[in-house]
Structures are given as structure tokens and as C-alpha cells.
Design goal:
The protein is 1% helix and 48% strand. By secondary structure, the chain is mostly beta strands. The protein has a single domain, classed as TolB, C-terminal domain (Neuraminidase, 6 Propeller), CATH 2.120.10.
Amino acid sequence: MIFDVRKPELEAIILPGAVMETIAEGYKLTEGIIWHHKDDYLIYSDMAHGKVYKWKDGEGVSVIKTPSNITNGNFVDAEGRIISCEHATSRVTRMEPDGRYMSTLATHFDGKELNSPNDIIADSKGRIWFTDPAYGRTSPAAGLARPQQLDYQGVYRLDPDGTLTLLAKDFGQPNGLCLEPGEGSLLVNDTPRDHIRRFKVDDDGTLSGGEVIAELKGEEPGKADGLKVDEEGRIYCTGPGGVHVFAVSGELLGVIRTPDQCRNFCFGGSDRSELYFATSSAIFRLKTKTRGVAFF
């Protein structure tokens, strides 16, 4: 069974007869999955193999970045450039559209190395938002062991002029983040605390609020990690057993069960109606009746 329905409202996303398709396999730790909205292909990282891959329907899989410096999160900005978080170097980088040139966008804050930038997004104003937990310094599977220079784990905004601003640091380990429709609010999950927080995005790009709106509960494998919204504002977050789906209010509607532990996922396809799941060993696709929010 793919769907564990807790509330009837979950039926709004369920496409009758949809199956969980395997589109690529043979990996160890996939992450950073995102759809390239300009060129219609999927991007994802395998942190264990140190590579970033491209998958295009009808063409299959190819490597677009190796070594990846243990790249985790990826995103495609309004110009079609791939921005990424590198765990081994504690950098935020950008790959130009032709893939030949890499820029380093952020490495330090207040003279100290960032911990290990993890998940990343960009908004319609060209600003980049990312989380900076310590996993890339503490987890042998997800990074390179080394001392942490900052004494907190924060959320940052990187402006087009290169200014880096710390927005919040009262997290255990901030991980997945996404802007809600209209870009007036930002969701951030906290992996060890198993919850999702909502912040208001003020006109100057600062954050206020930060209340907990949802909790990830369950005994099965899975933690708060990947985080997305659809065009109706429903909230999707990895958690025990798969991807948990919440109403805008934070009420749990149900769980999309994945064949393997899911760490991240994204909406994709030419109309954003397909969900792609990055698990430990494979990439899966599920067609739905909803669509992911348009980024730009």
C-alpha cells in the first residue's frame, strides 16, 4: 500500500492506479533531489559515491559532477544554474548552465567556516536560503570528520550582492527548508526535534515567528529531512515510514510510504505532477493529482 490515509483530504493528491516506479538504482545514499524546471530533467546526489547525477526520461542517467565534495542539497535557480551544498568543503557553490564553470558563493560567517550547508533553495528575487547543520562534520556517511568552528547550527540568507545573513540559530540541526506559496513564509524542519517550524518572511528578508506547526511521529525508520509544498499549500516532509503530508494548518493528512528509507524528494515532470523520491538505494517516481509549487 502506497498511501496511509489519515484524513479524507489526502485523497485530493491520490491518482487512482498510480504505482511507485523505480527509475534508477544501485546507489548507497541519495539526497539533494530536484527537478530542473528549464530543461526538464532530474538532479540528485549520491553522497556515498561522491557524485551528482542527471536523469532524463528516455535518456537515462549521467554524471554531471564528480568529485562532488559530498554534495547534499541542490536547487535550480531562475536562470537554470544549479546551486549546491557541499558537506566536505562547507561551501555553497553554483554550476553554470553548461556545467563547465563552478562558482563558490559562501564558505564562512563571522570569520569561521560554515558547518556543512545541507539544504538550499532560491527565491524569485535571486536570494538563496540554506540550512547549516553539523552532519557533514560528524557523520562518516555524510561528510568528513573535523572540528566545528561555529557553536550553533543556523539558517542563512545569501543575497545577490554576496551578503550572507544569519537568520536563526535556535535549532538542534536545521535541515529541510522551503518557501510557501507567495514566498511570504518559510518552513524549516529540525531533524533531532522531529518537527517543522514556520517563519514569516519580512519585507527586508528577515524572519519572525518560528512556531512549531507539525511533528513527525512514528516508530519506523525515517527522520525530518526533505521538505516541500504543493501549489495548494500542503506540506510534505520525510519522516518515519516515508513522506508525511500535512494540511497548511499542520494537521497530518497521511503518509506516502516508500520502499526504502526516504531522505529527500521533489515534485517534477513537465507539469510538476510527479513525485520523485531519493532513498538509500534507488530513485522512485509516483504520479499524483496535485502539482508542486512553481518556484519562478
